[in-house]
Design a protein that fits this description.
Length: 464
Amino acid sequence: MLELDRDVVIVGAGPAGLTAARELKKAGLSVAVLEARDRVGGRTWTDTIGGAMLEIGGQWVSPDQSELLALLDEFGLQTYSRYRAGASVYIGGDGKRTLYTGDTFPVNSTTAAEMDKLTALLDSLAAEIGPTEPWAHPKSRELDTISFHHWLRQNSTDEEACNNIGLFIAGGMLTKPAHAFSALQAVLMAASAGSFTHLTDEDFILDKRVVGGMQQVSVLQAAELGGDVVLDSPVRTINWAEAAGGYRVTAVSDRVTVNARFVIMAVPPNLYSRVSFNPPLPRRQLQMHQHQSLGLVIKVHAVYSSPFWREEGLSGTGFGADALVQEVYDNTNYEDPRGTLVGFISDEKADAMFELSAEDRRRAILESIAGFLGDKALEPEVYYESDWGSEEWTRGAYAASYDLGGLHRYGKDQLTPVGPIHWACSDLAAEGYQHVDGAVRMGRKTAARIVAVAERPAVPVEAR
């Protein structure tokens, strides 16, 4: 087995791990990045399926994602706007299909007023609590011990309003039923994007895509790092001990052993347990990680000979909190004459779909998309389901969140290093939480923290 000596060993070659590695090398530290998969990119993945380029993982860029935008600019990667001209489609709780324009669902005046009220409440809480330390706010326990489902109904008796507001966080972001996470977790999701209003504005949160695919952010960083990135190399054991002037670390993977001074765990929290730590992690960490889990979503790609919905005056955007496919968007690639739709089936609806055969699941999903955009949606040239829940080295989507009561209980310790072990992933970000921007931010912050420690004068063990 190959043995390497480095200053820092990084577990995971997604945007967080590769950004950290790149920043560390700029600061003069040596690195090795160990990746379990046969590719870089983590939860970003661009592939060609049936002759169509599909973004199987994360893909969108929002105007507030300044760290990601700066990185795209640095690498000369261009972006383009999501198609949004024409009417959108809303399917209400009664199953009625309605066309509309603008950013307001075509609901009755009472429901619209209730949605505005809930939005204002969430905007106010997001501004008051912020994304950095939601667990430290005086209202944290109160908001963390009530589910988002029940918080909504505590503040409104309009069921359609509650379901629509819930969609933007439960189905659209955390991909868990609204009864499975707290109101505080919902507020963090909103605060991380700047406001809850941003989450309800698809023209903001789903603003642009990267020409050629988001995975290039990782591919280009890995190309700079060259042989410092080792693929097909899941880390099995991390041994660490105090040594003169710091720590001594040995990371053992399937292909290489790395001796280092620091470790960055740049994978989601649900994968920490795949590594055996010696000595074991502290009780606090072991408990915390059991309260963090990823959601479940099926991202469906349907490619057609042309974007037929545009010819019919439709934007390709559709929402329906009670529909099987709760969201659908025009996802046509840059300068591609074909048309691509992307739809999302979350949490319990995804459970139900995976109980069906592949053929029956395909039929049900396409029928739901056709409910928005018409029968031409039933016959795509290419059909593909992104199922991150079955990915061995991810096991869910889009990111980890705490169960009810977990955020205020454990959040303050989620970034606390354990000896030489540091944590960096979008799941632990403040701004940009669960987005590539958050991963880039975490990679940079963690690298800066390690550089600061590494530059301190060494203190002999006997002097401590």
